[in-house]
Known about the structure:
Layout: H1 3-9, H2 14-17, H3 36-44, H4 59-72, E1 76-80, H5 83-94, E2 100-104, H6 109-121, E3 125-129, E4 145-151, H7 163-172, E5 176-180, E6 198-202, E7 216-220, H8 222-234, H9 241-251, H10 254-273, E8 278-282, H11 292-298, E9 305-310, H12 315-322, E10 329-330, E11 340-344, E12 362-366, H13 372-390
Parallel strand pairs: 2-3, 2-4, 4-5, 5-6, 10-11
Antiparallel strand pairs: 1-7, 6-7, 8-9, 9-12, 11-12
Helix pairs in contact: 4-9, 5-6, 5-8, 10-13, 12-13
Pyridoxal-5'-phosphate binds near residues 155, 180, 182, 216 and 333.
Amino acid sequence: MKKETQIISVGRDKKWTKGVINPPVFRASTMVFDTMKEMRFATKNRAKGEMFYGRRGGPTHFAFQAAIAELEGGVGTALYPSGSAAISGALLSFLKSGDHLLMVDTAYEPTRDLCDKLMAGFGIETTYYDPMIGAGISALIKPNTKVLFLESPGSITMEIQDVPTLASIAHQHELVVMLDNTWASPINSRPFDMGVDISIQAATKYIVGHSDVMMGTATANEAHWDQLRENSYLMGQCTSPDDVYLASRGLRTLGVRMQQHERNALKVANWLKSRPEVDHIRHPAFDTCPGHAFFERDFTAANGLFSFVLKEGDLASVTALVENMQHFKMGFSWGGFESLILGVFGIDRIRTATQWDSCKPLIRLHVGLENPDDLIADLEAGFARFNQALK
Length: 391
Ligand SMILES: *Cc1c(COP(=O)(O)O)cnc(C)c1O
């Protein structure tokens, strides 16, 4: 079955929906039981979808968890109040003082800060590695290395990793392999077939899809599900059923939204490629993007998020480009229906295992669901302002 078909029916078990189409909001903290027997049964089965206490979730959560687990291809999904909480929840569920973590150099910046600021203080050591390291990862594995963390494509600079090679070497050393899979969403790759143990989504992005909810998911395979679920529960991680409802509503249209984001972004990227100001395109579907061959092999489609590098430019000229756009708004995050633009400076500050040439400015776009011709006209006007400011 194709993923677009699957997302229509996932998580719609009548056990949770009572027959209505989309799982409704079921609000709860306390459950009351009539008998000791019922209470003991719920306690014993609290991790298996029996209502027990609000923090463990209710039908709205169970339905959405089942949906994401099935789409990602794992056995269970833990929910978190943000993508960042899913990352910290997964890492802290498997790392303790004295352990060593291998973290991709192109990780989402707050993930890097978590390692350098919070986890370092807990006595967890991090080594950053080049996203293109491939089989070279084995030289960085130490006796106390416990987790290999990937993010593919990398944040901002979009390098695509050789996930199957990295995962298979990690497993020879019994590491837990975690992947920030947000760019692929749950429909454009098969993380568990590539050897990933825990696949993380910032559901805030394409799953929610409407820029109005923060949420994260971490999906585990059989071997890692119990530990992920229990430790995340111990850290008090839970989500509001209203937010989960919106995420599961967003999920139903993920297939068509992704197709349109991809089509629009490819049109914009192809236009950018012909611009004299542009050095190269960092879109996984373009051969100028590092790891492009892994994109071709491991992903079924792209989406609306990519970057491009300018031949030259300074703060003033890039500012002239990105300010006063009609459709591309300046803001963090991505994955909603709207277009966004970021002029990114200081990439060298958030890279330690690789080098980034900061002389050439990078622009990141999230191409939304507007008509791409309007977006191209918007960028064309932006380049006119850019060239004016460069003079
Ligand atoms: C946005 C993002 C996150 C964090 O998600 P939040 O919900 O904003 O905390 C993590 N990883 C990637 C790749 C992201 O783009």
